[in-house]
């Protein structure tokens, strides 16, 4: 077939033109009859030449690669001209591999990437620039490439695609990646589902043998943490050379190819964990551990965040007994806790917020996997110990160091609510820190400027009232809570609400404050020395400030 004329005509098609419109313009250049084998032979050399330029991005390169992919797509969309052949299965595999090499977010060492593994990335801008180029390259051609793969599979009977093709589809099925689009994600997901439904191997085999064993294990071999053994269990004695800092892995393409040269790895980890069931993880958990710990400890914020989110998903499926018997609970705890200290000013506020939410989520998931009581039956068990540490060394420490950052304070209040609800009555030991912190946030005259933070603080206070109520009546915290509710109510009432769309937000804050006051009234009625009537208690306050009557209505 005359591929030169077809690809030359495709190069003249405007980049804004849809593939369907392009098909109408180019269809007369497509042979009246051809086999998939003939198409594979025709495109092997030009597609190989195009993929060899990756990840260089230039106007000439973009135009050439786009023309080649568009020509392939046009041919595959002319279904009535495709002549069936006994060699179709081999041809489908060849075509899929050729297309995948162009769009895959991965390059071999030497293809536009500095191979000097001794230089940390902070001193080697070539690595970062190459990664950005690779993402830009794949983003540019992802739509045409995935459409071509989908069109190809519609023409063929069930064919087992190569592992490299499937790994690339996994990368494009992850909506959080820079190089994919909603359309590419949907198409890649459909192709994966078709593969595991119609062709061998099973999804379970692909996850364990291909993704975990053959693909991820070699990629992460140089980044294994010293806290675990080769089998994925807790190391009783850390590597002495690592402890002295002699084997600290540098942030390079040599030690972290999954970060710079093969960007499919991180979505592959997330996909494998998401698609695995509890039985698969129970049987093959050692294969997951080194990879998850490496991601959760990475210095790059987006990767660290993804690692924490994936770890949370993994923990939800990890057997409780195995977690306890292997000592991995402590390994995970020690791996995640340093992230709680990623605070301003060393860490930008936006990045800190991005990291703290998944870090607390991973620790809460870990806490829920552990027994509340210890071996002797007393409450000071692993779960309560971890939750205590999350408040003391997490929330309170972060608030002390970064309370001027309102977005961060909002996250801390949200996590306080979750932790207190998980602790239950055992949270009373922290009242001396909880109440002053929440009171300081709610009584700040400028608090209404950040309504989200204020709502989160009120929600945390409600969690305290719901779980710590036996210790509140007739305690110093009783009046401090009343003071916080009253001042917060007045500050919200006095705040200028002329900004568009803010009225509903402040009305919601007032509703939550009123709900908190009702909860406090119910708590005070449980006092051991006799019920305390909140209305009578705050009567002198209402006499001086009638605007509080809506907050503390007479019962």
From TrEMBL:
Pfam families: Tti2 (PF10521)
Organism in which the protein naturally occurs: Thermothielavioides terrestris (strain ATCC 38088 / NRRL 8126) (Thielavia terrestris)
Family: Belongs to the TTI2 family.
Taxonomy of the source species: Eukaryota, Fungi, Dikarya, Ascomycota, Pezizomycotina
SUPFAM superfamilies: ARM repeat (SSF48371)
Coiled-coil boundaries: none
Name under which the protein is recorded: Uncharacterized protein
Cited InterPro entries: ARM-type_fold, Tti2
GO cellular component: cytosol; nucleus; TTT Hsp90 cochaperone complex
